[in-house]
Specification:
aminotransferase, alpha/beta, four-stranded antiparallel sheet, globular, seven-stranded mixed sheet, 13 helices, EC 2.6.1.9
Length: about 375
């Protein structure tokens, strides 16, 4: 059928490579999923209770501004609730930022192995994505600044980064911002902030409060509420106003803010999740380092394991699958063909993965 006889997407839409999620085990199998960076301890019991209570009100439209969640976030993080926008996952907010601040002829800059959603939302807005090479799988501030042109309108920065787990210190993020024109928006995507243990890291709230061209984006997905789809953003008044003008009037479902508010306030559960992750992230890193494998130091709830060759990475993936562990192949989405990303799971899962990989026949 001719394209003239059917609706045609806007130019550039069909050039976008779709997002590739982590694989899951086949239905009916007992495979352990370590491919999506989900919470190994489930959700906060308080969040579950709030979700169940809210389920009794499914016939009612949600309050449009997610006021209950914004107030809880403001209380926990010391932020004015009026400076917060909530979304259907942080992806929703990233899309809205791209729609608002990018258009035909504009450019957005990101590091080479940054989150694979950034090219999608940039190109969907009609803009061009500019990818900048990293130094040893870590964002290079000098290279990012060198890539800025008169057309640059947005810098996407995942900190810590997915899929590498690397991060930039507060000083480096500030140096990046200091080199930008005031009309360029710096988006600090803190999806994994809850898991960071590095002392020189900052979520960037001070920078947001000090400047007019910085926003911080967060999510509850890594804290046990991935299915609820809750994201939040903190930004200057003028950016919050612009985003609120185009977001859906009920872009967050009714149970999500209730669960999110309870989860944000459940500090004991969140600390337990962070401690579990830090212990088993460091343990697994130590176990796998060597044996023709290299683990990139991570501040997230996963590690990226680099093998000597793409063939070894493929063999490792298949060997893990055969043993019942589903990890993330990052070649298709990120071009790191010799790497696998492994989410931090239960103690049993981590010991199992370590045993499989350290005893794997890696001869070719």
């Amino acid at each position: 059928m001719s394209d003239k006889n059917r609706p045609t997407p806007q130019p550039g839409i069909l050039d976008i490579a779709p997002y590739l999620p982590g694989k899951s085990g086949a239905a009916g199998t007992k495979s352990i999923k370590l491919s999506a960076n989900e919470s190994p301890l489930g959700a906060s019991p308080k969040a579950l209770s709030a979700m169940i209570e809210a389920a009794a009100k499914l016939e009612i439209y949600p309050e449009g501004s997610s006021r209950v969640l914004r107030e809880a976030l403001g209380e926990v993080h010391g932020v004015d609730p009026a400076s917060i926008v909530c979304g259907n996952g942080s992806d929703d907010l990233l899309h809205l930022l791209a729609q608002t601040y990018l258009g035909e002829g504009d450019e957005a800059v990101m590091n080479r192995y940054g989150f694979s959603v950034y090219p999608i939302i940039t190109m969907a807005a009609g803009a061009k994505i500019v990818m900048v090479d990293e130094v040893d799988y870590r964002a290079d501030v000098d290279a990012l600044l060198a890539a800025v042109t008169a057309r640059t309108k947005v810098i996407w920065l995942a900190n810590p980064n997915n899929p590498t787990g690397s991060y930039l210190s507060d000083a480096e993020v500030r140096r990046l911002h200091a080199g930008l024109r005031p009309d360029i928006l710096l988006v600090i995507d803190n999806a994994y902030a809850e898991y960071v243990t590095a002392e020189d890291f900052s979520v960037g709230l001070d920078l947001v409060h000090e400047q007019q061209n910085v926003v911080m984006v967060r999510t509850f997905s890594k804290m046990g509420l991935a299915a609820a789809r809750i994201g939040w953003m903190v930004g200057p008044d003028h950016i919050v106003d612009a985003i609120n003008r185009i977001r859906g009037p009920f872009n967050v479902n009714l149970p999500a803010p209730m669960a999110g508010a309870a989860a944000a306030r459940d500090l004991e559960f969140n600390e337990r999740l962070k401690a579990h992750n830090a212990h088993w992230r460091d343990w697994l890193t130590t176990q796998l380092q060597g044996n023709r494998m290299r683990v990139v130091p991570s501040q997230a709830n996963f590690i990226m394991v680099l093998f000597e060759t793409p063939a070894l990475a493929a063999r490792a993936f298949d060997t893990l699958v055969a043993a019942g562990y589903i990890v993330r192949e990052i070649g298709p989405s990120y071009g790191i063909d010799q790497g696998l990303r492994i989410s931090i799971g239960s103690e049993a899962a981590m010991r199992g993965v370590a045993q499989v990989l350290t005893s794997m026949d890696q001869s070719l």
